[in-house]
Inverse folding.
């Protein structure tokens, strides 16, 4: 069941908010739709909180660490932190929203006796310029109306559900959950003065909230409760600081067009997926949410792709949010300094390179869609686009902050160009990381052109004229080859790979990287052919329709539809772009969050969630429409009004 679009972004207490009917027994025994989750985080890790108030996903201490709660991947073994009504019946209602332009998530539960509000947040703010992240989840349970009986169950499971923790009671302070395996160094705690019953690796308590006892604060934190020597958790102060941090950050956005609130929410979501210490941006906070229910296309996205991160920086910049840019690019430059000829498509958030992929047989997977995987085998793939994406990011940084110095030029830019010169004629795995035969993907060759184009521009900017002249020759040669071998006159379109008759939605990026104008006849016909071959349901695009070396099917990729919006707006089909955008907005959940894919038959979310790529695409599409409308707006002639008068 999907939340109604009209209730999005309403402020706390709004009478228009949508209440979803839920069953306690079903909540405890079944998988929620992916769309039924909200995101909280602290720029180190994050958690998914269900509309029923259950935390079903948390990795600790950082995004790519083993999970503590993973009920979203195994409702029986994964572990969760539940707050549920205890009213003697099976039914209750729930509503969920964010506290304005922040990461503070509010869930309200209602039954015949009353209403409670659960305020969930992870403290995140700056003090004298230093990012403060306390490795805590604060859960404030407040009674809004009547008398409300609530049952709280805390059931951590270490190392992706493998280990049942030891529970230690610290009188007056709370409860510590620690791994029984000394090799798995995970320890967490519930800081509370409330009394819980201790079970097998879990604790549980029943509370009655009344007007006289209207609030309970629970703090789930990393490390044992021994590290917290005092009862005071400073929830009020941390809540205020966190609210101020996100509100202040959001106000920096310069976007004023249509879908302003959703653009704001997408930006906050992207910032939540940023690792604060390096600026690395993860693709998604989850692993193995399936691209097909019951299928095996389940991947770990908790890493930083150079491609995704660079695209996110585009999106941030387009709405005036440049804060992560300098930190990320300094980090990337440090990682690839003197090794730029051997670029890797993705990294851990602190720069580790070995992301060996392995299945976790102990978890059944979301709705029994095994396997659950950790690591991602694409880290070893050869993908040509990474060269162009890195140089595009460096050029982007150079023109906005002039950070390209001689060392970066000599030991990154020139080394990347050297690699492109040597490798651009080779087939690769492409943007979609196919696990079948390598091909000469048109998209990949385009990024080789981008690499040389940006290198030429950088060289000219810093006075390296000879390099610019030399590299421009190969740049032009690559473009000629793409126009000849990547274009098929029979279908009147750019194709997926040399010699193919199939199209690829990734080629819709051509105008955005300035390879070809959106209104160029070759591009407009490619847009039409892409819609004809890949569109489903009038708004969803598949990435491609071709064998990719994997069994099974997948959903439609939302970012591809947002790329299409961008192309339509750029080619002058603004009304068509806006209509498509309006229909795609309906694919977000009740909080304005997007998944990776959509099942075109049911409209259900598929893939990892929330997906950075999709949110980036949404922001870029919204900006493209706003710019197109501005270009088409009638020009006011100075003095015209006075003359008419």
């Amino acid at each position: 069941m999907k939340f109604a679009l009209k209730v999005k972004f309403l402020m706390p207490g709004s009478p228009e908010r949508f209440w979803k009917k839920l069953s306690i027994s079903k909540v405890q025994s079944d998988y929620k739709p992916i769309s039924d989750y909200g995101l909280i985080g602290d720029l180190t890790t994050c958690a998914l909180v269900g509309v029923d108030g259950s935390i079903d996903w948390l990795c600790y201490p950082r995004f790519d660490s083993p999970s503590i709660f993973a009920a979203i991947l195994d409702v029986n073994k994964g572990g969760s932190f539940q707050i549920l009504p205890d009213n003697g019946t099976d039914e209750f209602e729930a509503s969920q929203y964010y506290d304005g332009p922040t990461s503070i998530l509010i869930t309200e539960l209602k039954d015949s006796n009353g209403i409670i509000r659960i305020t969930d947040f992870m403290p995140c703010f700056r003090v004298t310029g230093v990012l403060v992240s306390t490795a805590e989840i604060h859960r404030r349970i407040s009674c809004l109306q009547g008398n409300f009986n609530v049952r709280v169950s805390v059931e951590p499971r270490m190392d992706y559900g493998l280990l049942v923790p030891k529970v230690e009671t610290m009188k007056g302070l709370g409860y510590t959950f620690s791994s029984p395996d000394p090799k798995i160094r995970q320890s967490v705690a519930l800081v509370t003065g409330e009394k819980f019953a201790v079970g097998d690796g879990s604790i549980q308590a029943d509370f009655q909230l009344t007007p006289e006892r209207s609030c309970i604060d629970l703090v789930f934190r990393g490390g044992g409760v021994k590290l917290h020597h005092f009862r005071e958790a400073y929830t009020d102060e941390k809540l205020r600081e966190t609210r101020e941090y996100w509100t202040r950050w959001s106000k920096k956005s310069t976007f004023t067009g249509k879908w302003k609130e959703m653009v704001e929410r997408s930006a906050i979501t992207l910032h939540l997926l940023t690792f604060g210490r390096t600026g690395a941006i993860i693709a998604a906070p989850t692993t193995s949410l399936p691209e097909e229910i019951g299928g095996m296309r389940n991947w770990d996205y908790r890493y930083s792709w150079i491609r995704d991160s660079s695209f996110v920086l585009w999106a941030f910049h387009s709405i005036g949010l440049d804060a992560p840019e300098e930190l990320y690019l300094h980090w990337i430059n440090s990682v690839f300094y003197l090794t730029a000829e051997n670029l890797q498509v993705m990294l851990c958030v602190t720069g580790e390179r070995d992301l060996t992929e392995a299945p976790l047989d102990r978890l059944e997977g979301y709705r029994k869609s095994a396997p659950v995987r950790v690591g991602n085998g694409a880290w070893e793939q050869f993908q040509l686009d990474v060269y162009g994406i890195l140089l595009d990011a460096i050029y982007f940084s150079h023109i906005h902050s002039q950070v390209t110095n001689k060392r970066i030029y000599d030991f990154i830019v020139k080394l990347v160009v050297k690699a492109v010169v040597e490798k651009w004629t080779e087939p690769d795995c492409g943007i979609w990381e196919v696990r079948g035969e390598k091909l000469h993907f048109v998209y990949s060759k385009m990024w080789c052109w981008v690499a040389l184009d940006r290198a030429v521009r950088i060289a000219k900017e810093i006075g390296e004229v000879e390099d610019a002249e030399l590299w421009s020759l190969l740049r032009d040669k690559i473009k000629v080859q793409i126009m000849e071998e990547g274009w098929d006159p029979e279908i009147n379109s750019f194709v997926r790979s040399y010699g193919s008759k199939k199209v690829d939605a990734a080629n819709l990026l051509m105008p955005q990287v300035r390879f070809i104008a959106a209104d160029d006849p070759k591009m407009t016909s490619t847009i039409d052919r892409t819609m004809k071959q890949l569109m489903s349901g009038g708004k969803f695009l598949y990435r491609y329709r071709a064998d990719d070396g994997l069994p099974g099917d997948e959903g439609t990729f939302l970012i591809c539809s947002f790329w299409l919006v961008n192309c339509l707006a750029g080619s002058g089909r603004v009304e068509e772009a806006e209509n498509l955008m309006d229909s795609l907005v309906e694919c977000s959940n009740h909080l304005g969050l997007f998944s990776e894919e959509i099942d075109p038959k049911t409209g259900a979310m598929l893939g990892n969630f929330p997906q950075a790529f999709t949110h980036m695409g949404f922001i870029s599409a919204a900006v493209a429409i706003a710019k197109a409308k501005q270009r088409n707006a009638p020009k006011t002639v100075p003095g015209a009004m006075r003359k008419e008068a």
Notes: The radius of gyration is 25 Å. Residues 1-15, 640-645 have pLDDT under 50 and may be disordered. Residues 5-228+242-248 form a domain with the Beta-galactosidase; Chain A, domain 5 fold (CATH 2.70.98.10). The first helix runs from residue 24 to 29.
